[in-house]
Amino acid sequence: MSMKSSDNAPVDVSWIHRAETIEGKRVYIVEDHHRALLGWAMERRATATPMVLLSLDHHTDHRRAFGRDAGDDEEKRRTWIQALDFKSDESIRDALFHLHNDEHICAAIDSGVLSTAYSIVFSQAGDTPRSIEMEAHQAASAISFTRSGGVVLPPIHTGKRRNPPTRPFHDHPSSNGTYAIGSQCYVGCAKDSHSACARRLYDEALESPFLDRQIGVLKEMALATDLAAPLSDQGFILDIDLDYFHTQQSIAPVDATTFHQLIRSARAISIAEEPRFVENLALDASLRSDWLLEKMLNQISVAMK
Ligand SMILES: [Zn+2]
């Protein structure tokens, strides 16, 4: 006999997320990032069309849905995707058993929860997909950027040295709706080598000039894909992985104008605690996820008042 109830008893979601309302803003707090899928699905039940995601995260988290658990079994992967129904808590709960913590964005796109996902990240220096201009430049000068220990190393030139192209760029459309916006360095850095820049870059994580620059890139990408001003309507989810923060200063912006505007205009906010990633990536050794969460909830409260 099946343990599955047929009396439509509500599914216990208390282990999946903690839903709070802070000054009228809905906030979903999860320990593992992929569990944010439930809160996004709940929001999607009240929108006519799939939503846009803006994620602040160290990593892109753009891996294909169920890719790890399904392995080479593409049919199994498709079956799990087809079983995903954003209207059903039970369906989301079951999906979470096979989803890993960097597969939730593609799972949300595949199941019609999201249309497009933009991730502002530190794990890469450039944009994904690459712009047409940068692709041509890198091909022509055989140039490559690599990161080591969180910093961008000087570019490696194996071809003829050329001046890099300047923005605005035209980006290739994403094949799966995901866009990652990286950054070479902090706003205004003119050095060739950024090996000593990591702390200043990370300190700027929520500063208005930094976010304005990154969102400017996002808008270039959005225009290239015929999405008009995705952050101007009420349909986007602001998603924050606390491993985006590497220093104590990073969550205490001097100029929080842009971040607070994002908080106010977001339909809802999801926050992933990811305590082990926070500690592993921290520049300030004492940085802890629970401390960051408290600061983040306070930022939301201040923005909404
Ligand atoms: Zn630099």
Main features:
alpha/beta, eight-stranded mixed beta sheet, 305 residues, two-stranded antiparallel sheet
Could you give a quick summary of the protein structure above?
The chain has 305 residues and is an alpha/beta fold. The protein is built from 11 helices and 12 strands. It starts with 17 loop residues before the first strand and ends with a helix.
Distance linking N and C termini: 53 Å
Which cofactors or ions or other ligands sit in this model? zinc ion
Biggest β-sheet: count, sense, barrel? 8 strands, mixed
Query: How much beta, percentage-wise?
Result: 15-25%
Mean pLDDT: 87
- Order of secondary-structure elements: EEHEHHHHEEHEEEEEHHEHEHH
Overall number of domains = 1
What is the helix tally? 11
The rough form would be described as globular
The Rg value, from CA coordinates, equals: 20 Å
Find the count of extended strands (DSSP E, 2+ residues). Answer: 12
Helix/strand/pairing category = alpha/beta
- How much helix is in the residues? 25-40%
Overview of this structure, please?
This protein has helices at residues 36-44, 67-70, 74-83, 89-96, 104-110, 132-141, 198-203, 208-224, 257-265, 275-281, 289-304; strands spanning 18-22, 25-30, 51-56, 114-120, 127-128, 143-144, 147-148, 151-152, 156-157, 178-181, 236-241, 268-272. The strands form 3 sheets. The chain has an 8-stranded mixed sheet with strand order 1-2-12-11-3-4-10-5, sandwiched between helices. Strands 6-9 form a two-stranded antiparallel ribbon. The chain has a two-stranded antiparallel ribbon with strand order 7-8. The model is unreliable at 1-6 (pLDDT under 50). It starts with 17 loop residues before the first strand and ends with a helix. The chain has 305 residues and is α/β, with parallel strands linked by helices. α9 links the parallel β11 and β12 (268-272). It has one domain (18-131, 175-304).
